[in-house]
Amino acid sequence: MFYGGTGCFHRRKVIYGVPPPDTVKHEMKGSPSYKELQAKFGSSKELIESSRNIISGDLLARPTVDLSSRVEMAKQVGDCNYEAGTCWGQEIGWVYGSMTEDILTGLRIHAAGWESALLDTEPPAFLGCAPTGGPASLTQFKRWATGLLEILISQNSPILGTIFRRLQLRQCLAYLIVEAWPVRAPFELCYALLGPFCLLTNQSFLPTASDEGFRIPAALFLTYHIYHLMEYKECGLSVRAWWNNHRMQRITSASAWLLAFLTVILKTLGLSETVFEVTRKESSTSSDGGAGTDEADPGLFTFDSAPVFIPVTVLSMLNIVALAVAAWRAVVGAAAGVHGGPGIGEFVCCGWIVLCFWPFVRGLVSRGKYGIPWSVRVKAGLIVAAFVHICTRN
């Protein structure tokens, strides 16, 4: 198990940086001194005493207190400047240094040797809210992917935690599955551009339908999607749920993950800094409890002028243009008796991308919040024109 930020309880001694009982460090007898605790937890006497009891395991030593008398102490500890000069954010509490502090905190806990336990209740014990619509959801995915990639290439990488600390191999693999999200973006972008490039340049990268080798990519394509569809059906989910999640993964990879990858690369090169982008929770009802007339339809994709929408808009327009050019070329070539060029595989690749990006295709002809803003369309159109010019200049 690994901690992903939702539906999790942490023991206080774990949050306080106490190692597991089987480590040598924990076997030291006696509790830390007052000065040691003050350097770690700050100047609050009440917090120091409470942390001393937690660390030493002397839970019965805590007296019963009146919570109302602790208001001033809570204000002191909750002050933004309280943690200055302490170990908060480094050795204790939430770990700073990443936009996904939950993953980083869980990674620190597991790297110290602690183990997690899964409690699966029926009904579920935790139900949360997530951003709806395009702008909020893609912004949140970009923030997550940025933080995950920052962890992957930092000294807190799960690979280093497995080699030099106590992170188990299976835990390392679990963290890598999530933290490798943005690394997939440039590769998926290349595959998304390969189809239209071949259609525009009248080339092919797949065997033709008459070749026996065509069965291999066709079998891989069908097997992959049928297998995932069967997984959804076994979990009691519908075909529509599978299709929505599949195309959202393609959209997220080509937009949020791609921008997160570029953001971290620029930060690593010292050319920019990452910025925490706040996302708001959107409600489907109005404040008076009735249906809101100005709220977005949850079944439709919404857009704004954020840069995160440009890559997918480019790919949508580019694949439509490539399909149109290749179809016209095929018709003219068939009439003239000219054969060759791209085959059915390249057409299927471009058509599949158009289907996956259908919310953006629909956004190109829609208006309002359901339509792609003209600023995004113009920028995407210029990029598409440049790509088409490069492909057809010879």
UniProtKB/TrEMBL annotation:
Task: Kindly list the residue ranges recorded as spanning the membrane.
Answer: 251-270, 308-331, 343-360, 372-391
Q: Which GO terms describe its biological process?
A: cell wall organization; cellulose biosynthetic process
Any one GO MF annotation of this record: cellulose synthase (UDP-forming) activity
Query: InterPro entries from the xrefs?
Result: Cellulose_synth
Q: Does the keyword tRNA processing apply?
A: no
Q: What is its main location?
A: membrane
* Subcellular localization, as worded in the UniProt entry: Endomembrane system
Q: Which UniProt keywords apply?
A: Cell wall biogenesis/degradation, Glycosyltransferase, Membrane, Transferase, Transmembrane, Transmembrane helix
Cellular component annotations (GO), alphabetically ordered: endomembrane system; membrane
Task: Quote the protein name from its UniProt record.
Answer: Cellulose synthase-like protein H1
Instruction: Give the organism, scientific name.
Output: Aegilops tauschii subsp. strangulata
